[in-house]
Amino acid sequence: MDKVIRIGTRESQLALWQANLVKDLLTAQGFSTILVPIKSEGDIDLVTPLYEIGVQGIFTRSLDLALLNDRIDIAVHSYKDVPTQLPKGLINAAILERGPVKDLLVYKHDTQFLEDSTYVANIATSSIRRKAQWLRRYPQHQLHNLRGNVNTRLQKLASENWDAAIFAAAGLERIGVRPDESVILDWMLPAPAQGAIVAACREQDTFCREALAPLDHAETALCTGIEREFLRYLLGGCTTPISAYAYIQDGQLNFEGNLCNLQGTLSLTVSHQLPAADAAGLGTSAAKEILVQGGDAIIEEIKNAQR
C-alpha cells in the first residue's frame, strides 16, 4: 500500500477530531494517510445567519472542490452538513456508526427560566430548525444568532448577556468540552443525519472506495438515508425547519419527521414504526404525508419570506 490517502477536513477542533477518527480507522487497516486542512466558506463568514447565506453545502463545498480537483482523496464531514444532492463525480463512500443524536442546552446560571412563563429568556443558536422548535415551546423567548465552531460559540455564550445556547450534543461530547451546565433536549427533534460522520471520495476512485467500505455502518446508513430522503423530498436545507430521526430497536425501525414554519406556530409531524427490512422508501412516503397535511403551504411561506 504505497499510496498515501489525503484526507481533507475543515480546520475546527471538531472537524479535525472527525478526520482523525477516519485516519485512525484507515491506519488500522494498514493504509498510509495524511490530513489536509481546508478552510470552508462557512468558517470564513461567522456573522451572517446561515439561512441568509442561502448556500447549499456551505461547510462542504470547499472540500468537494478539493476532491474534484484531486487535491485530496477523501473528505470527512458531519453528515448533517452534506447536501442531499452531491456534486457529479462524488460519492458518500462510508457512513460511520452514529454518535450522540440529540441537541443540548448549555445554560449560564440555571434552568429556572424554562419553568417561568413570564421570563423572557435570551437563547442563542444559528439553526433555523432549533429556533422554530424552541419558539413553539417557548414563544416568549428571544432568539439570537450564534455562528462559529463549537469553541467559538461557547466563548460567545460566556461573553454575551444570554441565558443559554443550543448545540448538538455530539459536537461538544466528541471533543470533551460539554459543560456541566448543560441538559439534553429530549423533546427537540434533531436535524436529519445529526450525530453521523461521512467520508466522501471520487466516484471513480476504487482504491479509496474499497478502503472506506469496512468503515460503513449499515444500520446508521439505513437510518440516516431515510432521514435524508425525507429532507430531500421536502426540498429542505439550512433554510427550512425540517427535522427527522430514525433508529432501530428490536428489529423495528422507528421514524419521526417534522416540518415547522419559521415562527414555530405551525408544526406538522409524522411517525412510523415498521420492520427495518421493509423501510425502503419510508423517507419519501413520510414526506408526502407532511405535504398532504399542509406542508406545501408552509414551504411556500418560507420561500416567500426569504426572497
In short:
Helices cover 34% and strands 24% of the residues. It has 307 residues and is of the alpha/beta class. It folds into 3 domains: 4-96 and 196-216, Periplasmic binding protein-like II (D-Maltodextrin-Binding Protein, domain 2), CATH 3.40.190; 103-184, D-Maltodextrin-Binding Protein, domain 2 (3-Layer(aba) Sandwich), CATH 3.40.190; 231-305, 2-Layer Sandwich (Double Stranded RNA Binding Domain).
Provide an overview of this structure:
The chain has 307 residues and is of the alpha/beta class. It has three domains: 4-96 and 196-216, Periplasmic binding protein-like II (D-Maltodextrin-Binding Protein, domain 2); 103-184, D-Maltodextrin-Binding Protein, domain 2, CATH 3.40.190.10; 231-305, 2-Layer Sandwich (Double Stranded RNA Binding Domain). It has ten helices and 13 strands. Helix 9 (218-233) crosses helix 10 (282-305).
How many domain regions?
A: 3
Q: Report mean pLDDT, rounded to a whole number.
A: 92
Which regions are unreliable across 5 or more consecutive residues at pLDDT < 50?
Answer: 42-55
CATH topology title of the largest domain: D-Maltodextrin-Binding Protein, domain 2
CATH classification class of the largest domain: Alpha Beta
| Overall radius of gyration | 19 Å
β-strand amount: 15-25%
Protein name: Hydroxymethylbilane synthase
Catalytic activity: 4 porphobilinogen + H2O = hydroxymethylbilane + 4 NH4(+)
EC number: 2.5.1.61
Subunit structure: Monomer.
